[in-house]
Design brief:
alpha+beta, four-stranded antiparallel sheet, 4 helices, rod-shaped
Length: 150
């Protein structure tokens, strides 16, 4: 008698599994796409880190002949070498030098950077999200690299 009650208590409704699956499917898709988006953002973050490092590195090799345009080109080229990162989405490239980190925007200021002082290249990247319908603004990724001027 106890088994008979158990069977009638847990009876199966036709279509119940399909409705439960239909309710949970959008959430599962959102989680999977979110994981993919997180991976893309992390990849872009690593790419702009490498680009900022290359921008600072090119200056440390030949500080007397390097121009701001060369640093910017190096950063853009390094980002352009990556498959999932678009160099057109670079929001800004800021070069600073010295202990006070004065902004360098001309060749004269770049040449005036003191020896044995750091140069910092900061790259800001506007990462466009796949889930743009849920987020009105792109994700801004900012990364800096600092090296000493010889």
């Amino acid at each position: 008698m106890a088994n008979r009650r158990k069977k009638t208590f847990f009876h199966h409704q036709p279509g119940q599994s399909m409705i439960e699956f239909a309710l949970i499917l959008p959430l599962m898709v959102l989680v999977i796409v979110g994981i993919f988006e997180l991976g893309r953002a992390f990849f872009a973050y690593i790419a702009i880190s490498n680009a900022a490092r290359e921008g600072a590195r090119i200056y440390t090799f030949s500080p007397d002949t390097t121009t701001i345009a060369q640093i910017n080109t190096t950063v853009s080229t390094e980002i352009g070498n990556q498959t999932l990162v678009d160099p057109n989405n670079i929001a800004s490239i800021v070069i600073k030098c010295g202990n006070t980190y004065g902004v360098v925007d001309t060749k004269l200021k770049l040449d005036a950077c003191p020896s044995e002082q750091p140069i910092r290249v900061t790259v800001t990247y506007s990462h466009k999200l796949i889930l743009g319908g849920f987020f009105s603004q792109p994700l801004l990724l900012v990364r800096s690299a600092e090296m000493m001027k010889p």
